[in-house]
Specification:
Length: 202
């Protein structure tokens, strides 16, 4: 499967990922995948997104362009769930991106802590639980990006592939929404789920 050419604009890459996520969600449901929270699979942009971005930027600094575009165009995604007949990976690390309301909740805690103890920047925007927490097992730090922005497509901190936010999304698309399967897909029908899907939208 071809990933998005890095020469593409960031907005084009996010658009391609968005289309792929929606199609993968549909195919997974059709194949009998049981999402833990169906209403959170791909609900679309959250009400108040623009206000949330404006507040973060007013309080601590620039939100990375890639994350801003994702919140505005996709909103959030939660592929946590199981299929009764697919096996082979204990921690498939389902694709997950919190909506901006989660960033605001974390911002409130960050500002309270900063006020009391003069914490240093950066503020960390929560992106997703780690692969263990997604399976209800005690794990480590949640995946996050730093604010103020360090790049338009920032590093995705504490994610095991040591990549950027958009590259993580593209990797997830390559593995049908489950980048942890890159360590061993077992009997998951990756080729069938991703047939005709490319992160570049082609």
């Amino acid at each position: 499967m071809a990933l998005a050419p890095k020469a593409m604009s960031l907005e084009s890459r996010i658009n391609a990922v968005a289309d792929s996520i929606r199609l993968l969600a549909k195919r997974l449901a059709e194949r009998g995948f049981e999402f833990d929270r169906p209403s959170e699979v791909c609900p679309g942009p959250e009400d108040g997104t623009a206000d949330a971005i404006a507040r973060i930027e007013r309080e601590v600094g620039a939100v990375p362009l890639a994350l801003r575009l994702f919140w505005q165009q996709v909103g959030s995604v939660n592929f946590c769930g199981t299929h009764p007949e697919w096996h082979g990976s204990e921690y498939p690390d389902p694709l997950f991106v919190y909506p901006p309301s989660a960033a605001i909740a974390e911002l409130d805690e960050f500002l309270a802590h900063t006020h009391k103890e003069q914490s240093e920047f950066p503020y960390l925007v929560p992106i997703a639980p780690d692969s263990h927490h997604k399976e209800n097992v005690s794990g480590g730090m949640w995946y996050n990006v730093s604010v103020p922005s360090v790049a338009d497509d920032p590093p995705l901190n504490d994610e095991p592939h040591l990549t950027t936010f958009v590259a993580y999304l593209e990797l997830a698309v390559q593995w049908a929404g489950f980048p942890g399967l890159s360590d061993g897909p077992g009997d998951w029908p990756i080729a069938e789920l991703t047939r005709g899907i490319h992160a570049d939208g082609s």
